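Hey forum,

I'm writing up a methods section and want to include a predicted complex as supplementary material. The small molecule is fe (ii) ion. I've pasted the protein sequence and the SMILES. Can someone with a working setup run it? I'll credit the forum in the acknowledgements.
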Amino acid sequence: MPTSTQSVREIIATHPSAAKIFQRFDIDLCSQADETLDRACAELQLSVDQVLEKLADAETQELGGPPVDPASLSIDRLIQQIVRVHHQYVRQELPRLAEMAQKLAAKRSDRAPELKNVEELLEELRTDMFAHIQKEEQVLFPFMSQMDHDSIIVYPPAHTCFRSVAQPVSKMMQEHESANHIVAELRRITLGFQPPAWACATHIALFAGLSEFEADLKQHVHLENDVLFPRAIELEAELNSRG
Ligand SMILES: [Fe+2]
Ligand SMILES: [Fe+2]
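Reply by user p_vandermeer:
Happy to help. Structure tokens for the complex are below, copy them as they are.
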């Protein structure tokens, strides 16, 4: 657990979720990095106990509850979980990471020119992924969900613009591939998200955030490509065979 006598930098280096909490309290990751948490909080008239409590909460959340087997969920519940956990995460994290990358590229790209590329790649990822999750939420997921609920009533619904769920699924899988490709490129140019020895706290927090994003994307894509999409295709085939 972090303590109030540790510096902001030390806490971020050992607790990746801390940067988000500090940013929420307006603790400056650059100018206050070498201050103890006590001092940083005093300067902003914050209660250090409250900040420590939020840090502890974030750590507990990171450990998570007992894992739920996605195969045991209905298509509808699976969709709800993907949207609530992973789409929500994309919406929160990509703007935060892009903003940090922008600041860092402006300040430090003379020493680390790859930060310019990090900034550009994150912008591309944000545009692509925001459009991607919107398509899933507005077109594909409602279609799948309807198929799940109304499986005995009418299928396929008249208002969709595709004949088979396999069409949008294949498009979404291509988009997953390109998101994975951008993240792999981010990993490559940052040498595995390793900040240099001289990195400031924002730099450390950005790279920790990127590494966390990579892990979340892996899980998000796995749930869609390997669990949800095959289930929907299977259900469609079953419905079609009923005539
Ligand atoms: Fe998704
Ligand atoms: Fe997706």
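Some notes you might quote in the supplement: The pocket of fe (ii) ion (ligand 2) is lined by residues 132, 136, 172, 176, 224 (CB under 6 Å). Residues 151-155 have pLDDT under 50 and may be disordered.
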